[in-house]
Design a protein that fits this description.
425 residues; mainly alpha; 20 helices; globular
């Protein structure tokens, strides 16, 4: 999987034109958006990056939003015929992260961004390996390379995405919580303000378990970031808040590959959007509230860190389902499942006797994260050929959720070997 994916990626670049692959996809894809935000910040016109127009198409009930200034800028990088805009729609303070790379031309910047994220992934491996004894049976390099046997990891780097940053924050937060360093953990979690939806699951648990030091830590980091933005990015914030109510509609734009979204929203939209957008929203809310309710039930029975084995599994469930809650969970974002996978690996000797299917479903998660979105795309193309409503089933969402549910069952009715073992680790 890894060899074929990387080989054909570089082949498509070599036989492509300029900075586009053979398939007309720009080098770095999503990094192009980050580079745009960083460049506009360096040129002191970041507020203009959010200037937009709406275009309504009769075949789509949702007006599509375009950013003409961004498109013009990206055409200077990719070429005058480039029309597949990669929009920078992050909060303005995130441009501070991308600005150092925007000092360079696009290709060197993308290479530098890639190495930066490769280093962060390695630091994530070191962080979690130092905390989970079973992983210490393997070398850091071997664990690091194993990460690339999970397709979303490869996809993340090919897209030039920021998931390694989020994974590193997750690992720091998990390790800090596990060692009773609540304030530090909350501070790390608050750094996800640039993608706050990915912090919802863990934040919900911290509030539920009244981890006040963690909550205060999160408030501190959020206050620092927002305070800086309010003082030094006032115009940019106003421009961002003007468009923010419409950003969710981007996921429903005709040009957007919704088949790659693996969240509860993506599952619902692919299944029900052709029938009713209201039905999609209702199902998304039901699945989200249902998952949070299950987390509430399981965590309500768990005493914080009294049994580390049980606590670890609870955190693995929280990370799994917390990801699905995030509306925009593209298949490269599933790279974040590496953390719950590492936690499960730590406790596999205790989990397997109780639930032998855990390895089967862990394998299915790996396969689904490789082929699931592509299978959904095929469903939609077949529906289109048969002139049927463009309805598809995102099986990846179902499989990831059920994997979490197997873990949920193991901690809500654990046998003696899980509840009483490995407390010291």
């Amino acid at each position: 999987m890894a060899v074929l994916t990387i080989f054909f990626y570089f082949l498509s670049i070599l036989i492509g034109t300029g900075q586009e692959s053979y398939f007309g996809v720009p080098l770095g894809v999503d990094f192009l958006a980050f580079y745009t935000g960083g460049s506009f910040y360096l040129n002191d016109n970041l507020d203009s990056v959010y200037e937009h127009i709406f275009i309504h198409q009769q075949s789509n009930p949702v007006s599509e939003i375009y950013f003409p200034n961004q498109l013009t800028f990206q055409q200077t990088i990719i070429g005058p015929d480039f029309n597949k805009l990669s929009p920078f729609i992050n909060p303005p303070f995130t441009a501070l992260l991308y600005a150092p790379f925007a000092y360079f031309d696009y290709v060197p910047a993308f290479i530098g961004w890639t190495f930066f994220n490769l280093v962060l992934l390695f630091l994530s491996v070191l962080t979690i390996r130092s905390e989970l004894p079973r992983l210490q049976q393997f070398s850091s390099i071997k664990l690091y390379l194993c990460c690339f046997l999970f397709f979303p990891t490869i996809a993340c780097f090919l897209y030039g995405q920021a998931a390694p940053i989020i994974l590193f924050i997750y690992c720091l937060c998990f390790k800090s919580l596990r060692n009773g360093q609540d304030f530090r953990a909350g501070f790390f979690l608050g750094l996800l303000l640039f993608k706050p939806q990915l912090a919802v699951g863990v934040a919900f648990i911290l509030i539920l378990k009244c981890r006040w030091k963690a909550i205060i830590g999160g408030i501190c980091s959020v206050t620092i970031v927002t305070g800086y933005a309010i003082v030094y990015m006032t115009d940019e914030l106003q421009a961002y808040f003007t468009i923010s109510p419409y950003l969710f509609d981007l996921l429903r734009a005709e040009y957007y590959p919704t088949w790659g979204i693996n969240s509860f929203f993506g599952f619902s939209a692919l299944l029900l959007d052709p029938v009713s957008i209201t039905a999609t929203n209702v199902l998304t809310v039901i699945l989200t509230v249902g998952s949070l309710s299950l987390l509430f039930v399981s965590w309500n029975k768990n005493t914080w860190l009294t049994d580390k084995a049980s606590w670890d599994i609870h955190m693995a469930i929280t990370f799994c389902w917390g990801l699905l809650i995030s509306p925009h969970l593209y298949y490269y974002d599933l790279m974040l499942l590496l953390l719950p996978a590492a936690i499960v690996t730590q406790h596999l000797p205790q989990l397997y006797p109780q639930s032998p299917r855990i390895i089967l479903w862990m394998t299915l998660v790996w396969v689904a994260c490789y082929l699931g979105s592509q299978f959904t795309s095929v469903q939609l193309k077949i529906s289109n050929l048969l002139e049927l409503p463009n309805i598809g089933v995102q099986f990846t969402t179902v499989i990831v959720f059920y994997f979490g549910y197997l873990l949920y069952k193991s901690v809500t009715s654990p046998p003696p070997q899980l509840s009483n073992s490995n407390n010291s680790t």
